[in-house]
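OP here, attaching both records as promised.
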Amino acid sequence: MSSSTTTPVIDFTPEELATLISATREGTASIVKLLNTLNDISSRTGRKWEPLGTFGFQTIFIDFAEPLSTPDQAAQITDRAIADAFSDPTNWSAQL
């Protein structure tokens, strides 16, 4: 983990800082939960999740997080869409 000793460009209000800290911790915990789930699937199937090409955490954010700000788009994030995104065979190695 890096730390900075430079003067901050932006001074956050206490409320903003509390929200940033909380959201970062929650997001990080969710990423760890996602990776643990993928590791469990790897153990069960003998295949390792290795996203190729354009699928990775940036894609997950673009496809599943960004639309949450728009109710119409959020409704399109179905269980099937998530399952399809993670079950693409090109993102799973043949074996561990």
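Record two, same layout:
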Amino acid sequence: MIFATIENNGKEQLCCVDKEGERAFLLEVFFQRDLSEFCIKSNQTDKVPGTMEELINRYNELWTDDIALFFGSNPDLAIALDRKNNWLPLKNLDEIWSPLDERRGLSLLE
């Protein structure tokens, strides 16, 4: 799982990037939906992480599988990424983070 910041509708938001690096999914969607139909409860939180630092500090290991399950079942929620144009609409490429690799930076997408 790779987390990044994306520009969407004029504001920067956290997202996760699929393993192929072709699509991004807004984390806000994961946290704000009732996902009981997927047997997902890990998204129920008092406050949705708004920055990469908040996400890293509050990261829950259950999110990785649950996010993959939810967005894998809902590919229509994806935002296309453009590798040829410097990964647009991703922002702050040096802040890209993977909890599995415990590292940061654009090299995670290459």
